[in-house]
Specification:
By secondary structure, this protein is α+β, with helices and mostly antiparallel strands. The chain has one domain: Nitrilase/N-carbamoyl-D-aminoacid amidohydrolase (4-Layer Sandwich), CATH 3.60.110. The protein is 27% helix and 29% strand. It is built from seven helices and 18 strands. The chain has helices spanning 19-35, 54-60, 68-80, 133-136, 164-172, 186-204, 254-262; strands at 6-12, 40-42, 83-92, 98-105, 111-116, 122-124, 130-132, 144-148, 151-155, 175-179, 207-210, 214-216, 222-224, 228-230, 236-239, 245-251, 272-274, 284-286. The chain has a six-stranded mixed β-sheet. Helix 1 runs parallel beside helix 3.
């Protein structure tokens, strides 16, 4: 970690069914983030398409090597000389399955990290909304980190937010920043977005960067928006509303060390296993002492 400050730009969008239209809108907002001084720019989950129909999705998306949006984003990162984090694109990986894939692109336009969303959003909501992400998407199997000039970034996507063990693993592997690009539903976002984002920041002593989709989409889905930056002490540094736009924040990596020195929980964590033989009550044994 260099200790120098840097500027984060979160691009909030309202993706439609047309990758070409989405690309035009996102490119414009990335340019605005750069003009505002961003060094690292993040876009939301499903940057290229928001489509609920499986048939329409698979007739529209393409493999990574054929994706014109990705090629454009690589050239844009090089042209603007920024670290560009495409929160995710729907990428065809087989005739029957897609990947919900993040791309981290460096200022040379090179893809330096890929992350496939691990946790699939298969949920029935109280208002009648139903999602079966696993019908169309293949879950990832690997957690991913990459070193930025200011510290190590841990990659994740949206529903991953609800699985704290992933973020603890990223933090224990050296992550200073947690990326959580999202397309949270309005209903779940109103209930849990802020508290979960703040919790992931606090419990790991990390900055959280979460660009989001927001508003009523062409396909009828409504997403929560509120792109957010949270500091390691759990304070909301910057936040958007529901409209498309750019949310900017100045990040000081020194605050991470300060927060972790005040609450050194990363040094004190233990892992547990079930004690055999099982009996009443069941016990869990701590199997790792303080790090």
């Amino acid at each position: 970690m260099t200790g120098s400050t840097f500027r984060v730009g979160l691009v909030q969008t309202r993706a439609a069914r047309s990758p070409a239209a989405n690309l035009d809108a996102v490119v414009k907002l990335i340019g605005e983030a750069k003009a505002a001084g961003a060094d690292y720019v993040q876009t939301p989950e499903m940057t290229n398409i928001m489509e609920v129909s499986r048939d329409k999705l698979f007739t529209t998306i393409v493999p990574e090597e054929s994706d014109t949006s990705l090629a454009t984003f690589r050239e844009l990162a090089r042209k603007l000389s920024i670290h560009l984090h495409i929160g995710s694109l729907a990428i065809k990986v087989t005739p029957e399955k897609a990947a919900n894939r993040s791309f981290l692109i460096d200022p040379r336009g090179e893809i330096v990290a890929r992350y496939d969303k691990i946790h699939m959003f298969d949920v029935d909501l109280a208002n009648g909304e139903s999602y079966r992400e696993s019908r169309s998407y293949r879950p990832g199997e690997l957690a991913v980190l990459h070193d930025l000039p200011w510290g190590r970034l841990g990659l994740s996507v949206c529903y991953d937010l609800r699985f704290p063990s992933l973020y603890r693993a990223l933090a224990e592997a050296g992550a200073s920043f947690l990326a959580i690009p999202s397309a949270f539903t309005k209903q779940t976002g109103e209930a849990h977005w802020h508290v979960l984002m703040r919790a992931r920041a606090i419990e790991n002593g990390c900055d959280v960067f979460a660009a989001a989709q927001g508003g009523k989409h062409e396909n009828g889905r409504e997403t929560f928006g509120h792109s957010i930056v949270v500091d390691p002490w759990g304070r909301i540094v910057a936040e958007g509303g529901t409209a498309p736009g750019v949310i900017m924040a100045e990040i000081d990596p020194a605050e991470i060390a300060a927060a972790r020195s005040r609450v050194p929980s990363l040094q004190h964590g233990r892992r547990f296993e079930v004690v055999e033989p099982l009996a009443e009550p069941t016990h869990l044994r701590a199997v790792r002492g303080p790090a």
